[in-house]
Structure formats: structure tokens, C-alpha cells
Amino acid sequence: MSSLAPEIAQQLKRDEHGLVCAVVQQHDSGEVLMVGWMDDEALHRTLTTGRATYWSRSRGEYWRKGDTSGHTQHVKSVALDCDGDVVLVRVDQVGAACHTGTRTCFEAGGDLGAVVGDAGQRP
Questions:
Q1: What are phi and psi of 115, to 5 degrees?
Q2: H or E element: which one contains 43?
Q3: C-alpha to C-alpha distance for 49 and 18, rounded to whole angstroms
Q4: Bridge-based pairing state of the strands 86-93 and 20-26
Q5: What is the mean pLDDT of each run of 10 residues along the chain (123 residues)?
Q6: Is 89 helix (H, G, I), strand (E, B) or coil?
Q7: What H or E segment, with its residue span, contains residue 38?
Q8: How far is CA 27 from CA 74, 75, 93, in A?
Q9: How many CA atoms lie within 13 A of 53 on its CB side?
Q10: What is the tens place of the pLDDT at every residue in 32-54?
Q11: Bridge partners (DSSP) listed for residue 38
């Protein structure tokens, strides 16, 4: 049973596994570092300990970022999106955010070559 405050828990729209997506951003630069998953208990731990905690879908257990790697995430703020199905976790990232050792999880995949839009041009 989770200790997540009921007023927060009732706002969450979880997937079929009881999870919400967590987008993780460097608090001062806005850099998107990674995406993780949280259940109520992981969110509670993140909100109350000052360190980001996630639910590992592959290992089936909680993991606090940096406990084994030393690459910690110190929480600066947590916000819920308008639909209640995504949390934005702003952190101070120490070391690499990605398990591959890169700063972000979006470096290895690389740019997909999207056409760059121009807000000044209207269809």
C-alpha cells in the first residue's frame, strides 16, 4: 500500500499496469534527460525524499536513480500534466542520466531528421 497523499492519487490517470509516465528534465537548462515510470509508491518516494525513484518495468522493482551508478537525480520540483497521466520531474542531474553512460537517453537514438516547422508560416 502506498503512502501517496489521496488528493494527489485521485488526480493520476494510470496505465493498465498502474503506472504514469515521468518525463525528467534538468531544472536549470530545460534539457530533457530521460523518461521513466512511476506507480503511486515511486511518486510518493520522489515527493518525500528529494531523490527521484522509479518503477523498473524490466526488473519489477523500485530503483532510486544513482544508488548503484552514482549518477543521482536531486528533485527540484514535480508537476502533473493537465490530463493527469504524465509527471514532469525537474532535477539536478549528477553524472549521466542514461544507463548507457550518456548525459541524456536521447543521444544514442539520434535525430530522426524531422522537417523543421516555422511558426511564422501558416497553411
A1: -65, 130
A2: helix 40-49
A3: 21
A4: parallel
A5: 89 97 98 97 97 94 92 97 97 95 90 89 69
A6: strand
A7: strand 32-38
A8: 10, 9, 9
A9: 15
A10: 999 999 999 999 999 999 999 99
A11: 20
As given in the structure block, the three cell numbers for residue 56 are: 523498473
Radius of gyration of the chain (CA): 16
Please state the pTM of the whole predicted model: 0.90
Residue type for 17, please?
Answer: H
79 vs 77: CA distance, rounded Å: 7
Residue owning grid cell 518516494:
45
Which of 94, 1, 73 is CA-nearest to residue 44? 1
Name the helix (H) or strand (E) containing 46: helix 40-49
